[in-house]
Amino acid sequence: MTFPQAREADIALLLEGTFPYVSGGVSSWVNQIILAFPELRFAIVFIGSRREDYGDMKYALPKNVVHLEAHYLYDFIGQGEKPKPRPGAADAFALSERLHDGFLRETAPAGACAAFSEIIRDLMPGGRLPEDDFLHSEEAWRIIADRYRKNCTDPSFVDFFWTVRMMHAPVWTLARIAHNLIPVKAFHSVSTGYAGLLGAMLRQTRQRPLILSEHGIYTKERKIDLFKSEWIRDNRNIFQRDPTELSYFRQMWIRFFEWLGRLCYDSADPIIALYETNRLRQIADGALAERTFNVPNGISLQRFAPLRALRPEAPPPVLCLIGRVVPIKDVKTFIRAMRRVANQMPAAEGWIAGPEDEDPAYAEECRNLVASLGLEDKVKFLGFQKIENLMPKIGLTILSSISEALPLVILEGYAAGVPTVSTDVGSCRQLIEGLDDDDRALGASGAVVNIADPQALADAALELLGNHQAWAAASRAGIARVERYYTDDLMFGAYRRVYERALAAGGAD
């Protein structure tokens, strides 16, 4: 595949595991932003895990995307020739040790950030700390063995050694990306994590502004993934384990992503959240309060408002979960809720509209659950669908997620006149019940239930679908709320001001 290539751009979007290769809310938002500013030239740096984990692009690139490059952090596994002996630069590794000492002391984040600023250029091509030295030098071996003896509570040195390598090797890939990226005036990362670390490297080495937008809090989402991960080992025997403590390697990965977040926060200005709870979380995780503010997601009223006229007079008894079929969406809770819904409202159907290719094993588990509950004629897997085609046919949007930020699908449903039932995650309570007195005065635009509670989810949906007056009131509240607070015009105006400020700073040497 030939990617567009340019010599320079205005904004470089730093994207981890999202647009243009993955569909979903964040990718849709990225596409919105690019299309909203046709006068700006965008470069896209896509960062993924392995090339084989992604298929073709899910989005057509807008015309103002002048540059695209895709990088895969773990394609290096199993590659390379037999290494040659190398001592490693002791002074460069000493600076690396200072950085890691800062990571271990929660009271000294400033020192770790300062050490990171010093070491970045040593990681670049031609620097004093090349990747081969980290992977193969005697000095690296000495430091890893010393760290194991001092800090590791897991008895397996082999697992410690490979965990360190897996965790740190992508850093040199990011350093090469930062070194080779075309000239741009400003950088915009849509998460912390590896994309945020790349942004920090670019900010420190090129002295151009770094904008950070967080839809969800990356470190929180990675913690959820890490708590559930089965590939992280715990080699302690039954007498060594404390059931109240996480395994050392799980803690190690969590600390790593927490520090990636801190390093990004240290370099980024502004730091943008979707809603106030997440802004406060950013500050608690190390962001300077004066750099933070909120810009809620917004949707196109012109796109969705006409769908209201296509709706039948009575709400269709269709509950629709629109999203990827992945564990974080907790599709299984929705399926279990549908058993209760179908028992009490036989005409009801549950639709699952979203791609299944991101986690095929989980998708298969969901299909098996449908079969085991005898719901084959009630729960339908539709795959990816155009949302305009769905909205006139459904009575409720459903979010059973265990983690969300500010879901576009709720706002899109509101604009089309469709209320929602959602778990109490992210900004969903704010979207349904309102943020302040004026917002709450509009009324509830659906219902909020606890995470992983299929009975509560089912009962809330039945109450709305079974009472047309309540459903109509929720529909009116949703329309009023989205029109007042969550339009794309409001969002684009905020980002226009952000980009104007960054480009003015980035254009000055």
If you had to describe this structure to a student in words, what would you say it looks like?
This protein has helices at 25-36, 90-104, 109-123, 131-136, 138-151, 157-180, 193-206, 218-228, 248-267, 276-284, 301-304, 331-344, 360-372, 387-390, 408-415, 428-433, 437-440, 454-465, 468-485, 488-506, and strands at 9-16, 42-48, 65-72, 184-189, 210-214, 271-273, 292-294, 318-322, 349-353, 379-381, 396-399, 420-423, 446-449. It is α/β, with parallel strands linked by helices and 509 residues long. The protein is globular and about 75 Å long. It starts with 8 loop residues before the first strand and ends with a helix.
Helix content: 40-55%
Number of helices: 20
E-strand count: 13
Strand content: 5-15%
Oligomer: single chain
The value of Rg in angstroms is 24 Å
Low-confidence regions:
none
- Judged by helices, strands and strand pairing, the structural class is alpha/beta
Task: Identify the overall geometry.
Answer: globular
Q: What gap, in angstroms, lies between the N and C termini?
A: 36 Å
Strand order of the largest sheet: 3-2-1-4-5-6-7
Largest β sheet strand count, sense and barrel closure: 7 strands, parallel
Estimate the mean pLDDT confidence.
91
